[in-house]
């Protein structure tokens, strides 16, 4: 039988597919869209509120976006770029609130100060120098620094209470930070797609992707329970299936996926709902990563707002699992190995001994040792108040490198076929926070003819598109104020 034909197939029910689907519906409302998600609901993997830190990554507090060079110099360009990308997301979400696509903003985003907290004279010096650079940048307007325990106590008392006197500490704070529930945001975007006629198929797994003679794709699927396998033909396919994107793109056999592998990292968080503890902390506080730790394992003590209820989260405690999804298979990693990616994967293993040593140490760490790490941030932490929860599974990108043979890449990467008929997203943080600019780049690459028209509409929703807010202080201030008002982020 000839398969059903649609314009767009979205594989995966996370924030990336939801963002791309909403954009296409707004820009090209006559296109047909089908969504396949293998689980019983959206956002049950990496986009789920309890599977990620929900930071709203804007580099306001994350030190890994502004590392210290071998000569001690600090380079802010990556931090500025991450912040620019998050402002694009904020503008898009603001427009969707105004259009009625998204519900009340409190359902998915809340104002939460972003802080950095460090210990030891060397780290205090680093943080002071970072502050002196960033305070001059328009997008970091309002950032504060203090090495006075009394001031830091006013900002976040749990960081200072019962801490040893005389310890060298410092912190920065910026009030324009946010807490984002990407699970709620994902659900709202898919609700919009459903209302506007998209075909949503849950508990349906994509098992094959094959290029058709006319350039479209046959997407083979199987329902989770007792369903007969069937196929759908699509002019364009986006694979936004989290860690499972790699094996699906391998099945597509596009040459662009050759040489890519995946390095899965699991983890855990401490969580408390004790109202007496939660009431004493209102911030997302990032520290400095341990030696050998991946950037996504930077310790942080976070205020989280999920379904209107505040909790505190601390972690993550990294570990290793061969699964590519939290609900994946232990065979995911071995089954992803191909002759073309074996060399890069072995090169990564050779060059990342510190990371492997760190992960082994994390795997062997007892709950008592994990609690000790929490107490480095919060000396008064009581074991009875905190429970361990399993974090989302992250699959970092491994790819070929001309010099090293292979490199481990932290971040996200879009893999696109030469003809633009299929694309997929690999990698992790800060993906969710930068979903909007990532998907705009995808539209520009995969639909060059349509994009010229779409760009006009996108600029109405995202005024800074194509420019750098940080180059224009008045534009940066206007954008921050406008989105804060629409998203109700003003305290």
Automatic annotation (TrEMBL):
Species in which this protein is naturally found: Herbiconiux moechotypicola
Family, per entry: Belongs to the MQO family.
Entries under HAMAP family matching the protein: MQO
Reaction(s) this enzyme catalyzes, per UniProt: (S)-malate + a quinone = a quinol + oxaloacetate
UniProt pathway: Carbohydrate metabolism; tricarboxylic acid cycle; oxaloacetate from (S)-malate (quinone route): step 1/1
This enzyme's EC code(s): 1.1.5.4
Pfam family name, one: Mqo
Protein's UniProt name: Probable malate:quinone oxidoreductase
InterPro entries: FAD/NAD-bd_sf, MQO
Keyword line: FAD, Flavoprotein, Oxidoreductase, Tricarboxylic acid cycle
Cofactor(s), names only, from the UniProt record: FAD
């Amino acid at each position: 039988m000839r398969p059903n034909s649609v314009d767009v197939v979205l594989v995966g029910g996370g924030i990336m597919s939801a963002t791309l689907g909403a954009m296409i519906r707004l820009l090209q409302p006559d296109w047909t869209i089908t969504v396949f998600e293998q689980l019983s609901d959206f956002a049950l993997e990496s986009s789920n509120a309890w599977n990620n830190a929900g930071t709203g990554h804007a580099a306001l507090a994350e030190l890994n976006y502004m590392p210290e060079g071998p000569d001690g110099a600090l380079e802010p360009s990556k931090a500025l770029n991450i912040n620019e990308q998050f402002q694009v997301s904020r503008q898009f979400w603001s427009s969707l609130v105004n259009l009625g696509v998204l519900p009340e903003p409190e359902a998915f985003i809340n104002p939460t100060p972003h802080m950095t907290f460090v210990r030891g004279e060397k780290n205090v010096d680093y943080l002071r120098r970072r502050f002196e650079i960033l305070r001059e940048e328009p997008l970091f307007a309002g950032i504060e620094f203090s090495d006075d325990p009394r001031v830091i106590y006013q900002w976040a008392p749990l960081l200072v209470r019962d801490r040893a006197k005389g310890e060298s500490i410092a912190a920065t704070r910026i009030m324009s930070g946010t807490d984002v529930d990407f699970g709620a945001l994902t659900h709202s975007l898919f609700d919009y797609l459903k209302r506007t006629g998209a075909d949503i198929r849950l508990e349906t797994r994509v098992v094959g992707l094959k290029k058709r003679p006319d350039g479209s794709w046959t997407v083979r699927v199987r329902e989770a329970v007792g369903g007969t396998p069937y196929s759908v033909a699509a002019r364009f396919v986006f694979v936004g299936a989290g860690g499972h994107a790699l094996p699906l793109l391998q099945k597509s056999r596009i040459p662009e996926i050759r040489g890519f592998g995946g390095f899965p990292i699991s983890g855990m968080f401490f969580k408390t709902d004790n109202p007496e503890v939660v009431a004493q902390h209102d911030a997302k506080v990032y520290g400095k990563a341990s030696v050998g730790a991946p950037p996504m394992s930077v310790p942080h003590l976070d205020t989280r707002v999920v379904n209107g209820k505040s909790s505190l989260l601390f972690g993550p405690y990294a570990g290793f699992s061969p699964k590519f999804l939290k609900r994946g298979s232990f065979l995911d990693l071995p089954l992803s190995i191909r002759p073309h990616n074996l060399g890069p994967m072995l090169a990564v293993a050779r060059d990342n001994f510190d990371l492997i040593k760190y992960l082994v140490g994390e795997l062997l760490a007892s709950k008592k040792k994990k609690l000790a790490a929490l107490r480095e941030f919060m000396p008064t932490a009581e074991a009875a108040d905190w429970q361990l929860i399993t974090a989302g599974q992250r699959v970092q990108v491994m790819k070929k490198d001309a010099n090293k043979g292979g490199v481990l890449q932290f971040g996200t990467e879009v893999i696109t076929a030469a003809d633009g008929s299929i694309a997929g997203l690999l990698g992790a943080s800060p993906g969710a926070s930068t979903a909007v600019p990532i998907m705009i780049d995808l539209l520009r690459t995969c639909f060059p003819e349509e994009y010229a028209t779409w760009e006009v509409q996108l600029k109405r929703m995202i005024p800074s598109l194509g420019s750098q807010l940080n180059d224009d202080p008045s534009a940066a201030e206007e954008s921050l104020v406008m989105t804060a008002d629409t998203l109700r982020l003003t305290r």
